[in-house]
Amino acid sequence: MDCEIPVKQVHLHPGMKVEELIRVMEKAGAYNGGALTRAVEITGTMFGREDVTRFFGLAGAMVPAGMGGIVSDLIENNYIDILVSTGANLTHDIIEAIGCHHFRGTEKCNDIELRHDEINRIYDVYLPNESFIRFEEFMQDIFSKIPDGTVISISDLLAHIGSHLSTGILATAARKNIPVFCPAIQDSMIGLQFWLYRQTHKITVDAFGDMSRIIDRCFAAPVAGAFFVGGGVPKNYILQSMLMTPRGFTYAVQLTGDRPDLGGLSGATLDEARSWGKVDEDAKTVTVYGDATITFPLIISAVLEKKP
Amino acid sequence: MDCEIPVKQVHLHPGMKVEELIRVMEKAGAYNGGALTRAVEITGTMFGREDVTRFFGLAGAMVPAGMGGIVSDLIENNYIDILVSTGANLTHDIIEAIGCHHFRGTEKCNDIELRHDEINRIYDVYLPNESFIRFEEFMQDIFSKIPDGTVISISDLLAHIGSHLSTGILATAARKNIPVFCPAIQDSMIGLQFWLYRQTHKITVDAFGDMSRIIDRCFAAPVAGAFFVGGGVPKNYILQSMLMTPRGFTYAVQLTGDRPDLGGLSGATLDEARSWGKVDEDAKTVTVYGDATITFPLIISAVLEKKP
Amino acid sequence: MDCEIPVKQVHLHPGMKVEELIRVMEKAGAYNGGALTRAVEITGTMFGREDVTRFFGLAGAMVPAGMGGIVSDLIENNYIDILVSTGANLTHDIIEAIGCHHFRGTEKCNDIELRHDEINRIYDVYLPNESFIRFEEFMQDIFSKIPDGTVISISDLLAHIGSHLSTGILATAARKNIPVFCPAIQDSMIGLQFWLYRQTHKITVDAFGDMSRIIDRCFAAPVAGAFFVGGGVPKNYILQSMLMTPRGFTYAVQLTGDRPDLGGLSGATLDEARSWGKVDEDAKTVTVYGDATITFPLIISAVLEKKP
Amino acid sequence: MDCEIPVKQVHLHPGMKVEELIRVMEKAGAYNGGALTRAVEITGTMFGREDVTRFFGLAGAMVPAGMGGIVSDLIENNYIDILVSTGANLTHDIIEAIGCHHFRGTEKCNDIELRHDEINRIYDVYLPNESFIRFEEFMQDIFSKIPDGTVISISDLLAHIGSHLSTGILATAARKNIPVFCPAIQDSMIGLQFWLYRQTHKITVDAFGDMSRIIDRCFAAPVAGAFFVGGGVPKNYILQSMLMTPRGFTYAVQLTGDRPDLGGLSGATLDEARSWGKVDEDAKTVTVYGDATITFPLIISAVLEKKP
């Protein structure tokens, strides 16, 4: 065991750039603060190498918290090649794209009063019911543009939606031709709207219509990198797709608020992923435990400075 | 604000039954220990009333940790009417049902050595690769019994699998005719096996083929109760299905290791669910924070005693 | 790496004893559920061996949650030889011993209203201000029995208090002649009361008056075992006292709600303690992550059954 | 309930200053990311008002992780008027001040090998045993400068130590005449060294010698603000001292990795503190949950920019 690199005490000064802050945190290098600086390093490498295919997993209620803007910018700037998301994030992305808003509220509230005021709560974010009325109008109209009898994959359905929007994750992904996978699309307001539409129309969404598409991207990647915000289905779906290939990910960064000792995949370390071969034996990986509304913007703003 | 019910100090004695332990913990009644006793109370009511339709959400790596036995027993004894699960739990259920095992390991290990030894790790549980070879044989054989050209829903696919097994969750559910929903079936080894099979066969899994089935159960329920082990897709799918009806759940218990302040649904309180109408204004609900490998067996063994 | 002991699925039945439940959980043996059964095993060994000196660390607001009764019973039944506690737990122990109560409340409350109602909140436990008025009367009276000019150690001060009480931790410890250490006694209501008394009286509490006493017990122990509820000062004080001796603890069990990756001692693993020599290289140790209001009564009730 | 301030999606660009990042995070404003921006706001106000007496609580293993540099700079720049710390942080501060170092290691290690290599581990930080040998020499020498027969308070003992050091927290505090309180000084390596010294010398550390000093500062404060890194004794000691006065804190910021539902003070919300009157009814308070090695440097660097 070696004692070679001393922890340097952190000293700050007015007017620091984010990247400067990361550099002094890196010299300290301990606990999740240290992990965060390694995430900046690995993400910077992943974003800087042209030969890396970049998978991005998006879970947790990130769009309601304003993190969707970072994701759509990353797509815009070619830092995401494949996006896997929960249905909820895409639902909230559409809600913003059609001009509705999430609002800053408080978790110290009376949920029954909120119910009476027709406000839905996501921790300290409020979303008025009327957004869902406008969402329904938009979605039913969008679905009506798909010819009856169509069999469609989930990513094609999402691209169809995105092509009718001008801002946000789905819009940018559609414009940049980046596939958005969402294995559990039914488990979202998008899914409920589709179910409503299907009561009177015949469209089939092929649950397995996307698997070859993502697995082919895994096979085709000269080098593969993954960035996970949260765990859930997106994390597992990305990792298991790589499992079909002879190699694993070369780079992997995860931001999670969970903990490993509960056994669930969302909190599992990326070392555990090595035993499965999801991640290469010598892959550069790091897990940053904490709230992604802090760690995600901090990491990405530092990476952008290193790799403008 | 009232100060009426004093906290009673807990006194234990040798030979206590689980239900006795819960009764003394109930008299203390604070923090998650108190919440756990309220979970026993609510679950007991839910299990005791004949008119309650009981939804059960299963997330987290529970079957590898031995919790699947409790779930299949609950189905056997008519305490679960609708099961929503992650694909991983069902994969591991099949693995055990075909005679393979998970093994007790340690998280203090070298994952690269595990990789070389062909052992996959789930925190401190080990699963040899060879299980997946036997799993593949079984699954490919099972799928081959489905006629080419079939369009099938996920729950029917799972019932088909369960009907060829004799023990475990899927087997018991199939025998008892209890629907098992798994919106993100693709996101699992079952999904990967199905993708393999589909390379050379034509079966379509209709992603939305199950939604009416679960929503109809929500509409039909005279009274609805939900028990959530973990969050993820199962929790959201159950709650959103109820959202389509004029009422919400009357009873809801969740066991989760997550925390509410990160905004994600898995850690969200059931009070938050009141604002959405997923849970009734006057519903009896409780969240027990902690590892479900402790809280789940403890709660159920106490409930069984109260309600044998 | 070995795959020898299969995880057995848990099956429950009505009327189980706590110890039976632990036995089926032990056969599953994963995550914190498995850790808890190992805690039962280690604690049972520690309690069963006559030659083990048993140190007990008590942190977290355990007495307000009713856990104090378990601690005083353990002292009564000779399962604790040295107790190290936070000042808060001893304050609340005195409050109950003089006939006041903590009350079951709710965390979903308005703290400003509570303030107006003169109720102090500890998560979902309420404590009326008037308890502190009776506490003040009692404490000032107790202190007045100490002759002016006395120089006293903290443990002697606590024994003096305990000798004037008939129930609870301090009373039982005083009666059984078990030392209670509380290094940060100033940091509690007991401390504030003492400060008040000292405004007009001359008693000196020697901050270091107890150190030889606890370190001597470490030296004298043929075999040493530690049980930690929570972390904080009690955990560190017990571990550092052993550091002065050539050996470390042979047995150690900790129940904590913290997490290791934040670097703090409260969440640190007992493996980390091995590097310091606080715990022996081949010591039997286990950490159970979770709320001690669940894990503590569960473990102790199972241990009592094994070791009545 | 109002829906007035929309969540703005976060957009980042290369070259952002920390304060710019905070401003875009503030416009999103949700979960702990939003809480962090409110912490910047409140801390900025606290640091900007000349009439605020600023209390600072330091818990958790912060100095080994390089966070001590920020604390000593805050003292240097008059942003801390009263410091309350754990003994461990001060021990590690002395170790660095006498020229020893902490080293960047890994938590994925063999603690028995570390033991053999004479390296002590604090999560992923390594500290060689030899540091403690040099620490012992320094401490014994420092103590020898105190005349036998002295009765000393803990803060005077710490000021005495600091006056013989040239860098770090204790040195800066001594030079700036800022009191450092450490109620549980015995519970640290400083304490163990003092115990060793006292075997052959007669110095009495008066456990209660400091209480009037901190409570007087509470009484004298025209306006009081508190900044807590971690919980533990420092948090409680600061809050309880204010409890003696008719008012509570006007400003309070806490950074903690704990959670409220376990009942312990370290994870307790500052709203709970309102019920006790520790914090004023209309106080500006915020809790940021997460690892302070991330949140502390981020907040302070943003505050310095606003208030250079």
Explain what you see.
- The structure is a homotetramer of 308-residue chains.
- Chain A has 308 residues and is an alpha/beta fold.
- Chain A has a single domain (18-306), classed as 3-Layer(aba) Sandwich (Deoxyhypusine Synthase), CATH 3.40.910.
- Chain A has 13 helices and eleven strands.
- The first copy, chain A, has helices at residues 18-28, 31-48, 68-76, 87-97, 111-116, 129-144, 154-162, 169-176, 189-198, 211-220, 232-243, 270-276, 292-306; strands at residues 52-58, 82-85, 103-104, 119-122, 125-128, 151-153, 180-181, 204-206, 223-229, 249-256, 279-289.
- In chain A, the strands form three sheets. In chain A, strands 7-2-1-9-10-11 form a six-stranded parallel β-sheet, sandwiched between helices.
- In chain A, strand 9, helix 11 and strand 10 form a beta-alpha-beta unit.
- In chain A, helix 1 packs across helix 2, helix 2 (31-48) crosses helix 13 and helix 3 packs parallel to helix 8 (169-176).
- Chain A is globular and about 70 Å long.
- The mean pLDDT of chain A is 97.
- Chains in contact: A-B, A-C, A-D, B-C, B-D, C-D.
- At the A-D interface, helix 1, helix 2, helix 3, strand 3 and strand 5 of A face helix 1, helix 2, helix 3, strand 3 and strand 5 of D.
Write the layout of secondary structure elements.
The structure is a homotetramer of 308-residue chains.
Chain A: H1 18-28, H2 31-48, E1 52-58, H3 68-76, E2 82-85, H4 87-97, E3 103-104, H5 111-116, E4 119-122, E5 125-128, H6 129-144, E6 151-153, H7 154-162, H8 169-176, E7 180-181, H9 189-198, E8 204-206, H10 211-220, E9 223-229, H11 232-243, E10 249-256, H12 270-276, E11 279-289, H13 292-306
Parallel strand pairs in A: 1-2, 1-9, 2-7, 6-8, 9-10, 10-11
Antiparallel strand pairs in A: 3-5, 4-5
